[in-house]
Structures are given as structure tokens and as C-alpha cells.
């Protein structure tokens, strides 16, 4: 249980203010991006593994769309749809092995209800159903992960330019509930030059060089958990699901190219990567670390200020 709580803490606010949907400073309401990673390899492989010495690369493709907000009196409903694909390519393409990743798909809907209860206070309710699968054996109930977040937020400062949110995050996946706390910080300086967002596990800090150009830093813990039910490894152990994760840390550059259309570049390192395989009882069967690798990201988005 301690291990599961630790994992959940790393992801507890991946969807809290998902993709900056409540951000005061930057709102990329729709866009696409591609992230390319350099060559890497699995470490700590068991003896006899077909992946020994098999190097790989992977790309991440993202697309997102925020639907128009709906109002019911003072209550606001916001909906965001996200799609992500992780595509892997290996040196030894003929290797047919359980551990060899191929394509992982994620389809996520973020439905957020916000209701003001005082001048600077609001209550939040967030539902995040996610389908994560390699689609090799059809869909089942285990391909569905459900997140729910309940919390409050408060604005600070004369211009209400600092907002802090906190709440309880509940996740249900593979017949298990996980409960963790969450916190979010959203800031914009009085002169409009600095913008910062932190919602664990994401960090975004940008400096507005001009009204059309931004530079800054960006970091995140990116992970995906998906179904591998009915697989058995070479030692006869049953594999129920897998989790692939990487910590990204880098610098960013964003440029307005026409009105609300922005182009962004990001580059840095993918650190502390891991690929874990779990049993039906949530025990870790395999835990492979992944060599650090450079990455680059390009993005086009439609942004509201």
C-alpha cells in the first residue's frame, strides 16, 4: 500500500487544473504537439531477456480540445478532451517479447464543475475518466481509469493574481482505490511579465519578453498505466498491468505566429525513467529503469489570454 500511495502522489495533480484549464495566465484551449526522445535502453533486465542490448526510441503525440464553458447560474462546467499516443521503435525489430513496448493510447476527458462560495473562494469537483490501452486484445473494464478530485481554491493579492487550490484526489484503477492530497499554485506578476503554474506533477514558469514572445522553464512527471492482463512472463508470473514513466525537465520558447495562434519549442532531458510490470495483486513483478535521454517538443496551439 505504501508503494501505491507513493505512485499516486506522483500523479495526484496531473489533472488538477488539467492543462491549465483554470489558469489565469495561459489558456491553450486547443492544439497539437509531438515530443521526440533520443535513443535509450532498459536497465536491470533479467538474465535471458530478449531486450538485452536492444535500444529504443519513442515519440509522444498529443492533441487536446477545450469545449465552450457552460453556466448554470453561478456554477460553471468546463470540459477538456485529450488524446495521447506513445509510439516506440526498437533496434531489434524481430524481438517478440512481453517487455517490448509498441504503441500506447490514452483518451482522457476532464469535466470540471466550479462554484463560487465567497468573493475569493470556489469549490471544485472534477471527474476524469481515462481509457489507456495498447488495443491489442480489445477493450475491457480494466482499460478504464477513473479519477475524481474534490477541493477548494482561493485567490490572493489586490489583483487576485495568485490562486492556490487544494483538495482530495481519488483514483480507481485495476480494482483498487487510491486517495492522495493535491495542491495547485497559479501566479501572474502585477506587471504581467512573469507567469508561473505548479500543479503536481507539473511546473511551468515563463517570462514575457514581449507580448508575442515567451521564454522559460518547464518540467513534468509523465506516466501512463495500461492493461496487460493475461500475459505471463518467462518465469510463469502473471502480468496484469504496466506503467511507463519519465521525468521531463527543460527550457521552453513560445512565439505568437498569428493573432491567437502560438508556436512552442521545448528541449531538455528525460530523467529517472522506468517501466514497471504488476501482478493482479498489485505487486511489482519487474521494475526496469531507463537510461536518461534528450528530448525535444514542438507544439502549435490556440491560446486565449
TrEMBL record:
Alphabetically ordered keywords of this record: Signal
Protein's UniProt keywords contain Signal: yes
InterPro entries for this protein: DUF6268
Signal peptide: 1-23
Domain DUF6268 per the UniProt entry, residue ranges: 22-276
Stated name of the protein: DUF6268 domain-containing protein
Source organism of the structure: Chitinophaga varians
Amino acid at each position: 500500500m505504501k508503494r501505491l500511495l507513493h505512485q499516486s502522489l506522483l500523479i495526484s495533480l496531473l489533472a488538477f487544473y488539467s492543462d491549465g484549464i483554470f489558469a489565469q495566465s495561459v489558456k491553450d484551449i486547443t492544439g497539437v504537439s509531438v515530443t521526440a526522445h533520443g535513443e535509450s535502453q532498459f536497465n536491470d533486465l533479467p538474465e535471458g531477456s530478449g531486450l538485452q542490448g536492444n535500444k529504443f526510441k519513442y515519440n509522444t503525440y498529443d492533441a487536446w480540445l477545450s469545449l465552450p464553458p457552460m453556466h448554470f447560474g453561478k456554477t460553471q462546467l468546463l470540459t477538456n478532451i485529450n488524446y495521447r499516443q506513445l509510439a516506440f521503435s526498437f533496434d531489434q525489430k524481430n524481438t517478440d517479447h512481453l517487455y517490448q513496448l509498441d504503441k500506447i493510447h490514452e483518451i482522457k476527458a476532464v469535466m470540471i464543475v466550479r462554484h463560487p462560495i465567497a468573493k475569493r473562494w470556489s469549490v471544485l469537483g472534477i471527474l476524469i475518466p481515462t481509457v489507456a490501452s495498447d488495443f491489442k486484445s480489445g477493450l475491457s473494464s480494466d482499460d478504464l481509469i477513473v479519477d475524481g478530485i474534490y477541493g477548494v481554491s482561493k485567490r490572493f493579492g489586490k489583483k487576485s493574481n495568485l490562486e492556490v487550490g487544494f483538495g482530495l484526489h481519488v483514483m480507481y484503477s485495476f480494482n483498487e482505490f487510491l486517495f492522495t492530497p493535491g495542491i495547485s499554485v497559479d501566479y501572474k506578476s502585477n506587471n504581467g511579465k512573469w507567469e508561473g503554474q505548479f500543479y503536481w506533477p507539473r511546473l511551468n514558469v515563463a517570462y514575457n519578453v514581449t507580448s508575442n514572445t515567451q521564454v522559460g522553464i518547464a518540467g513534468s512527471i509523465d506516466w501512463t498505466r495500461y492493461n496487460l492482463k493475461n500475459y505471463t512472463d518467462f518465469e510463469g508470473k502473471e502480468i496484469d498491468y504496466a506503467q511507463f514513466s519519465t521525468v521531463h525537465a527543460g527550457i521552453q520558447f513560445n512565439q505568437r505566429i498569428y493573432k491567437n495562434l502560438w508556436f512552442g519549442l521545448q528541449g531538455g532531458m528525460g530523467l529517472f525513467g522506468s517501466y514497471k510490470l504488476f501482478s493482479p495483486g498489485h505487486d511489482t513483478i519487474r521494475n526496469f529503469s531507463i537510461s536518461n535521454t534528450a528530448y525535444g517538443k514542438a507544439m502549435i496551439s490556440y491560446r486565449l489570454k
